[in-house]
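Please describe what follows:
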Amino acid sequence: MPKNQQGGAATRGRNVRRPGLRGDVSISAICAGFIAVAVSYAGPMLVIIQAAERAGLDTAQTTSWVWAVSVGSGIVGLVLSFFTRQPVVVAWSVPGSALLLAVLGDYEFSDAVGAYLVAGLLGLVLSLGGLFGKLLAVVPRPILAAVLAGVLLPFVLNVTHAVLASPLVAGGLVVAYFAGRRLFPKYAVPGALVVGVLLSVAAGQARAPELSLALTSPLFTVPTFSIQAIMGISIPLLIVTMAGQNGPGLVMMRTSGYEPNDRLLLTGTCVASVLFAPFGSHAINLAAITAGICCGREAHEDPAKRYVAGVAGGLFFIGFGLFSATILDLFAAVPGELITAMAGVALLGALHGSMLDMLDAGPHGPAAIEAAVVTLIVTASGIAPFGIVAPFWGVLAGAGVYLVLTALRNPRGRKSSVGQVRERQVPVPEPLG
């Protein structure tokens, strides 16, 4: 069944009434939400911790930062997923964290908080006007799908390194995943996670964490404003968050068969960014990587019921945020290879779907596929000149190539040799099991 028909009216429409949440809850969706949050804590969270250490933030400021991005992401993701009946996964800006890794120490922390606030307000202006969604709408679909594929590809490729580094744990997890895809496809991802944890314990690669269960107390910082911080943090943070996170996040939902209300979703994330900035949150936005875990078939075979993964992810984020210090200790107890392998296999379905969309020319013609390949290469390269992340440059390169190729048409509309490339029909493999 075509992807855009899978979810029916409930998937595409925003005003269709559906049964209550209880009837849609599934173990696979809850596990997908948990894995999405686990991946966020095991990888991107480490960037925040490193940025805080380099900037010389104290324990209270760092813990409040983790609390703010976690609780803020959880509330927005839960509310938007429940009311839109779509798997809306919200997290903090990963490229924004990487940006702060280099510049946060150059400013007073209160100035940085003021810059976060300005970035959130600027994003809110763009979102309320629907400008960002309109800009995405004019870019050919294969190019947007290629951006998503380029973002996902490095995470999937990292599985090979994890398997080489830890053949028993990571390799066993991968084998368990594909065995699960054959035997019980709905629970392949959580099954692989259980196997990976058991193998890490058996191999002695997991350690007993030193846990002290205590609620995190957020720290309110009165924002101050400086032109230097606004130019050095606000503007770059706005660009990398909108282009590197919100753009691919919307594309992820669309390539999964949903029609997200970009104005509603982006407005919600920007409001949260403004509200949680005084507690240390640098930016809250649509998730790009972990959204693939909740939007894919691993969450539920019925796309109309995958929103439960977004609701579950929101609840886990809130819970983890309330006990952020404890949770960080818990995730540090399992080997990194397990998390790397788990993220890679959980994103295989999303990568598969984005690759298929990338190779589907549709009404744009074969030139769109050639431009999409360029987009994939640039995005997957991970380049970040001027502090702007690769997805932005990927879209720019792909759109430029597409404009050049489609300009090579004669006045009568006949395509040049570039446009005469024969389109290939990409077969869609049947689901296993």
In short: Residues 1-17, 410-433 have pLDDT under 50 and may be disordered.
